[in-house]
């Protein structure tokens, strides 16, 4: 049983995908899980890592190095895959990720761990892009909706299971296995992809990689991520370091745009942004990332600090939101596949996301877990309509030769959105908590940090604890109010989406070349018994 894409001389009918496709999708989901699960697992192991390796002052760089390398490499992986072939570039990214994982597990000091995490992040940048681009190659957009629930389920599994798995591994096997656990999973994914995945050969381009564009984009993205990571924590927002990073980011990104207009083979072809739907999906994806990762950060904090929930099960606290997201994503995918219609989903998703955020902004010290769970489910439903539709429409709006670039751009904008969301919502939250505590005479409690863990909170006098709970409620109120206001932009943008027929639409006959009969083409997967 084999997979053949465009160019097969075998006629292809619109039948269910063969078993071999499902095997490839399983391998892709494992790779996607590796990329998403890593930071969630490592976060739980951090205290143990610091206890053994020391270097507390460099702790944040264990996460920052990974995030920077992932974000900066994402668009480069997408372009290189378009130029030199998706499969081998994807396999290379898995190998680099596994090498980084193995080296991280063997690190003997914090400096080594940070360096090896950067290697791991470099590979992770290609994992998500590779998964999305290969799915875009194998499955026409019209049929892709069937698998949206699978991708949403992987995301939910990573967010819920990450902290639990990380805690269990650290307690019973040691923190090094938080990295080593990637090796068997990655080996399975490698073996399955090498054996079963067959993509058409890519005609080698005579143009060289746009190294200048890649360098400028890397510096620009690095500056942006550092501003959002350091601003308000390591350095004041008005500090010279932050101002310099902002200046560097602006100059390099403007220079990057200019270079892209001149490069024979640009890293990020600007012509794809001329497509209205594609550009709108980047905006909506950015805003979805802004909202989602901010919610994932502040909802467990609120429930632990105000509602007295256990920090150990923090991932489970997000179940209403994640389950709602998964179910709605599956529903939207099925409807898209059956009808070919999708414009209603960004609009409905935007409306639900705005509603959910403004409901969450109303939570106070008297809000029950049931009520907050309902509010989270509304937000999750909104994100479920948006998470996969943004990628689907973006890929449908790009030519097949630009599939990697389309996938990497959408992934990058969502990543940047999450960085801005966490930074801006975090700054507002911290400022509001400290302001409320100062007004109640408890500013000494939060002079080091606006976030106290459950153990520290339990040791506070009752009056100070109540004051802190009120302050956290006020902080989450302004954070979600901001997120809701930002989400309104995405809701408005959704109305401008044009319903362009999805490639590979419905049970139309394919031509002898294996392509969909529609003018826009579309990848079909040849089936054999």
Task: Report what the structure shows.
With 529 residues, the protein is mainly α. The chain folds into 3 domains: 180 residues, Growth Hormone, Chain: A (Up-down Bundle); 50 residues; 237 residues, Growth Hormone, Chain: A (Up-down Bundle), CATH 1.20.1250. It is 70% helix and 0% strand. The chain has 17 helices and no strands. It is globular, with a radius of gyration of 23 Å. It starts with 18 loop residues before the first helix and ends in a 35-residue tail after the last helix. Keywords: Cell membrane, Membrane, Transmembrane, Transmembrane helix, Transport. GO terms for molecular function: transmembrane transporter activity. It is a multi-pass membrane protein. It comes from Streptomyces niveus (Streptomyces spheroides).
CATH class label of the largest domain: Mainly Alpha
What number of domains?
3
Residue share in β-strands: under 5%
Major pleated sheet: none
The CATH fourth-level homologous superfamily of the largest domain:
MFS general substrate transporter like domains
InterPro entries: EmrB-like (IPR004638), MFS (IPR011701), MFS_dom (IPR020846), MFS_trans_sf (IPR036259)
Domain Major facilitator superfamily (MFS) profile: 24-502
Transmembrane segments: 21-46, 58-77, 89-108, 114-135, 147-165, 177-199, 211-230, 236-259, 280-302, 314-332, 344-361, 373-393, 478-497
Family: Belongs to the major facilitator superfamily. TCR/Tet family.
């Amino acid at each position: 049983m084999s997979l053949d894409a465009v160019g097969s001389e075998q006629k292809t009918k619109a039948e269910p995908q063969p078993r071999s496709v499902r095997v490839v999708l399983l391998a892709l989901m494992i790779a996607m899980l590796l990329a998403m699960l890593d930071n969630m697992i490592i976060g739980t192991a951090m205290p143990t890592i610091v206890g053994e390796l020391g270097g507390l002052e460099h702790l944040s760089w264990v996460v920052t190095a990974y995030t920077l390398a992932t974000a900066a490499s994402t668009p480069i992986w997408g372009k290189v895959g378009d130029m030199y072939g998706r499969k081998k570039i994807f396999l290379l990214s898995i190998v680099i990720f596994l090498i980084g994982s193995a080296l991280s597990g063997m690190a003997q000091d914090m400096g080594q761990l940070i360096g090896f995490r950067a290697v791991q992040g470099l590979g992770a940048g290609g994992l998500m892009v590779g998964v999305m681009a290969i799915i875009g190659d194998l499955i026409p957009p019209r049929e892709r909706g069937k698998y949206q629930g699978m991708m949403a389920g992987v995301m939910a599994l990573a967010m819920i299971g990450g902290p639990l798995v990380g805690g269990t591994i650290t307690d019973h096997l040691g923190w090094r296995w938080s990295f080593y656990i990637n090796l068997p999973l990655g080996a399975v994914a490698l073996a399955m992809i090498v054996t079963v995945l067959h993509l058409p050969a890519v005609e080698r381009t005579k143009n060289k990689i746009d190294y200048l564009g890649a360098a400028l984009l890397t510096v620009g993205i690095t500056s942006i991520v550092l501003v959002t990571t350091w601003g308000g924590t390591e350095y004041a927002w008005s500090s010279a370091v932050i101002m310099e990073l902002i200046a560097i980011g602006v100059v390099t990104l403007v220079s990057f745009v200019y270079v892209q207009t001149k490069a024979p083979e640009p890293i990020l072809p600007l012509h794809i942004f001329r497509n209205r739907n594609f550009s709108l999906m980047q905006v909506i994806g950015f805003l979805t990332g802004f909202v989602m990762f901010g919610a994932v950060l502040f909802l467990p904090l609120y429930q632990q600090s105000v509602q007295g929930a256990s920090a150990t099960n923090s991932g489970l606290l997000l179940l209403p939101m994640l389950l709602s997201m998964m179910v709605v994503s599956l529903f939207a995918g099925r409807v898209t596949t059956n009808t070919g219609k999708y414009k209603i989903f960004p609009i409905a998703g935007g409306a639900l996301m705005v509603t959910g955020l403004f409901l969450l902004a109303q939570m106070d010290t008297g809000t029950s877990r049931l009520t907050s769970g309902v509010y989270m489910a509304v937000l999750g439903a909104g994100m479920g309509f948006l998470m996969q539709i943004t990628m689907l429409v973006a890929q449908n709006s790009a030519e097949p030769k630009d599939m990697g670039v389309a996938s990497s751009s959408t992934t990058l904008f969502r990543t940047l959105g999450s960085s801005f969301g966490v930074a801006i919502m975090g700054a507002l939250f911290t400022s509001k908590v400290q302001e409320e505590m100062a007004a109640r005479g408890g500013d000494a409690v939060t002079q080091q940090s606006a976030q106290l863990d459950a153990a520290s909170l339990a040791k506070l006098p009752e009056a100070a604890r109540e004051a802190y709970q009120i302050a956290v409620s006020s902080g989450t109120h302004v954070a979600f109010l901001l997120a809701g206001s930002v989400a309104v932009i995405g809701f408005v943008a959704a109305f401008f989406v044009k319903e362009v027929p999805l490639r590979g639409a419905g049970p139309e006959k394919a031509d002898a070349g294996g392509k969909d009969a529609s003018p826009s083409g579309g990848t079909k997967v040849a089936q054999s018994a």
